[in-house]
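INFO batch 0412 | record 1 of 1 | parsing
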Amino acid sequence: MTKSPVRTAIFPVAGLGTRFLPATKATPKELLPVLDTPLIQYAIDEARDAGIERMIFVSHPSKSAIERHVMDDVRLRTELKARGKEALATELREAAFCQVEDDVVFTMQDEPLGLGHAVLCARTHLLPGPVAVILPDDLILGKGCIGEMIEAYAAGAGGHLVATMPVAAEETNKYGILSVTGQNGNLLKADGMVEKPAPEDAPSLDAVVGRYVLDPSIFEVLATQPPGAGNEIQLTDAINTGAGTVGLAGLRFSGERFDCGAKAGMLRAVLHIASQDPEYDAVLNEYLAAANPSLAA
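INFO prediction complete | emitting tokens
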């Protein structure tokens, strides 16, 4: 595998997941399963496939379960093997990080001061070069989104690169919207972003979602940036600040994105993945027939 120009990925996982209460009272939202795979595992696998060397989890002291999940559990694997579940033990080992072999860092964001602040919390642990940021709430299936972005970055995108997808005009007030100045295939040149604009004020229909490849200068900006919306340090503000100097572009990724920070998005993801597996055909057909009796006729 060719060495990636992006060696570090940051996973901001300190949020409390209030939209999923009471489920997230004791279980971090990143560990909620899409069928049998937690959201955080999809994000980790995406980063691994992209050749990321160091993974930094910006967590919260109340969410120690995340570290327990992502790190190897020798005791559990030994118990599984003793019960004849060798294949399952191997699967868990391959999914988990080894404390000796893998480059994994956990650092804390003690206060909810915004996504920009969460990214800044990782600053002292970075490897040199541009940095990936992956929001596990945004589940993107298909070709690995962060891998596509790194390829585009290596091909000359440079500066700050954000993942984008087209949205309907009436949905622009739900997203950061890219201010597009030019286009080359699926790469969009931009001069900034507008946060949640009304449809009549949106500079484009290209919405920014939870994948970023950022020039290292972002950390200098975040360190001195005053709070923005919600009295939080906003990553969008820092990216806008650097757009005029290091440059800004958006990549229209090829995968399918599910907003798993919302209940409806999580349900869509579960149904989508279940529909790809023949094991669940009977259940899905049973439900569809009950919901639409005319289809069963």
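INFO post-check: The mean pLDDT is 92.
INFO record closed
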